[in-house]
Each structure stands twice: as structure tokens, then as C-alpha cells.
Write a structure and sequence with these properties.
Rossmann fold; 11 helices; alpha/beta; 8 strands; 8-stranded mixed beta sheet; single chain
Length: 314
């Protein structure tokens, strides 16, 4: 979850888009749950299988190549993808613009829920014949990963929930400033939009690691080049607020779990990680001082090591 509804910033550092590499060739997509899901894979197929799930409005190109390299070096075979309604996966325009206020107050249903997005990931895994996965998600992707582990235990080897929450309206709730940022309309003018992106990242970055403004511009342009879908991002947000509390089901998980969070996260505040870990008796909870709603480069290997550790318990 990051950025305004107009085009939120992905939660991780820039990696140049490889869309150009697929021009004139068949892009890697699968048909699942009535949509097409764009995916890419990294590492050796003989490695440990890992499913990496993006956050609200984030394109899969938002994963930094350095972090992917850390996972591959650690022995994982990584599959990641664009969630529905973002990037090169199907944009569900037939749903139209949802009434987010009515959904928030329980007066209307969201076009789809976090459970539907988890089912997308499960179908991707099944269609590709990948077998059970070490499931890793960040922010809204952490919510999807939690639901994946709940609904598809046969496909889940371990769960890593990063800067996420099981019940965003009750725990891990954004600060008022971040809530305003999430719902603020975004400019259509490129330079104004890029300024907005920098302001948003400054709001959520945390104090331990300085913000690279050049990187913010690059990752925003990459996402824009792959296709903006502001209403789709709003539908993501409605899936977040319209989904039920996952804590009762999380309490029954038996797979190894690690919960990672920054202590300065204003977008999904630390109580979200605390609540996730509290209901899973065997979960490991790691808090990073000075980390906001981002995964800075100095922590790439550190986070990869935590994922290795929880995978070792499976």
C-alpha cells in the first residue's frame, strides 16, 4: 500500500521494466479465475519455490533487482506477478468505480476481496505446476499472503508477512496523513505527478535510510509506462477495507511464519505486525528500527535471511 489512488508508488526500489524485452514475443501470462495474470520468474527451477506478492497498486517491476538477487542467491526460485487490476494483468474495468465510502461503512460490497486476489496467486501456482510455495507478501501483498496461507494450506510451505496487517480498520491503521495520501486524486501532468510521488515517499520513508529521489522518479515512470489504472487501485483499496478480519483464521495456521515490520511505518502502522504475530503462537516477529513503509537496500540481505530461516522450519 503506497501512494495516492491516481497511481500509487510501488513499495520497493526501482528495477527497469522489461516490457520492451517482450515486444514481438509472447508475454508470460496465464488465464486464471477469468483474468490473465502476468508473471516473471527468477533463479533456478530446482531452487526452493517462493511466491512473491506485491502491495496495493504496485507493479511487479517494483521489486528491486538487488532484493530478487538476494533471494536467488539464498537458493529460492522466485515467481512474482502483477495483481489483478494493475500492470500487465487484466484490468477489471467492467466493475467501474466502486463506492468506497459505502464499502467502508458496510453498505455495499467490494467488487472483489483479498480472498479473490489470493485465489489468483493460487491458480497461477497450480497452472504453472509449481507446487507448494514459501509465500511472501508486502503490505496489501502481506494481506494476500496471509489469506493464501489460510485458504490454500496445501500450497503453503511457510508465510512471510512484511509491513502488513490482518484487519486494517482495527490494527495497523494508517495515520490520518497517509489515509489522505491514499485517497487523494493524482495529477495527470507528469512532472506534477513525480513531485507528488516524492512527497508521498517522504511521508512514509522512515528516518533510518535517506530517500533516493532519483529512484522515486524512475520507478514512477516505469509504472506509468506499463499502464496507469487509477480506478483499479481504488478497487484494490476497497478489497482491503471490505475483507473480513483474518485473525481468527490466522490463529489456526500451522506452517512456519515470520512477521517483519518497521517501527516507523505510518502507512501500515506497527500494530498491524504486532497483531499478526500475536495471534499466531509460533510466529517470529522482527521489528526494524527506523524503517518506514519501504524495504531499503541495506535490509535486502537481512530480510532474505529471515525468509531463509522461516523456510528452514518448513
Amino acid at each position: 500500500m503506497h501512494g495516492g489512488v491516481g497511481q500509487p508508488a510501488p513499495p520497493f526500489a526501482f528495477r527497469p521494466s522489461r516490457v520492451e524485452a517482450h515486444e514481438g514475443s509472447v508475454m508470460p501470462k496465464v488465464a486464471a479465475n477469468g483474468i490473465e495474470i502476468y508473471y516473471e520468474q527468477f533463479g533456478e527451477p530446482s531452487g526452493r519455490p517462493l511466491l512473491l506478492i506485491c502491495g496495493l497498486g504496485a507493479h511487479m517491476t517494483s521489486w528491486p533487482q538487488g532484493f530478487l538477487d538476494s533471494l536467488v542467491t539464498a537458493g529460492f526460485f522466485v515467481t512474482t506477478y502483477d495483481n489483478r487490476d494493475v500492470g500487465l494483468s487484466t484490468h477489471l474495468d467492467h466493475f467501474g468505480e466502486p463506492d468506497s465510502a459505502a464499502i467502508l461503512f458496510g453498505q455495499a460490497e467490494a467488487p472483489y476481496l483479498i480472498a479473490d486476489m489470493a485465489a489468483d496467486g493460487a491458480e497461477l501456482v497450480r497452472i504453472l505446476g509449481l507446487g507448494a510455495q514459501h509465500v511472501v507478501g508486502v503490505s496489501m501483498g502481506g494481506m494476500i499472503a496471509q489469506q493464501f496461507a489460510i485458504n490454500f494450506p496445501e500450497l503453503t510451505l511457510s508465510l512471510t508477512s512484511i509491513m502488513s496487517t490482518p484487519a486494517p480498520l482495527e490494527v495497523g491503521t494508517s495515520t490520518p496523513e497517509c489515509l489522505a495520501m491514499l485517497t487523494r486524486p493524482r495529477s495527470e501532468d507528469l512532472e506534477t505527478f513525480l513531485i507528488e510521488e516524492i512527497e508521498n515517499w517522504q511521508l512514509t520513508n522512515g528516518s533510518a535510510h535517506p530517500l533516493d529521489e532519483a529512484w522515486v522518479r524512475e520507478q514512477a515512470i516505469t509504472a506509468m509506462n506499463r499502464g496507469r489504472n487509477p480506478i483499479g487501485v481504488l478497487r484494490h483499496l476497497c478489497a482491503v477495507v471490505g475483507s473480513p478480519d483474518r485473525r481468527p483464521a490466522l490463529s489456526k495456521l500451522t506452517v512456519p511464519v515470520v512477521v517483519l515490520h518497521g517501527d516507523e511505518d505510518p502507512l501500515v502502522t506497527p500494530s498491524g505486525g504486532e497483531a499478526t504475530a500475536a495471534v499466531i503462537a509460533h510466529a517470529k516477529h522482527v521489528v526494524y528500527p527506523g524503517m518506514g513503509h519501504s524495504l531499503p537496500e541495506p535490509l535486502w540481505d537481512v530480510v532474505a535471511a529471515e525468509i531463509v530461516a522461516v523456510a528452514d522450519l518448513a
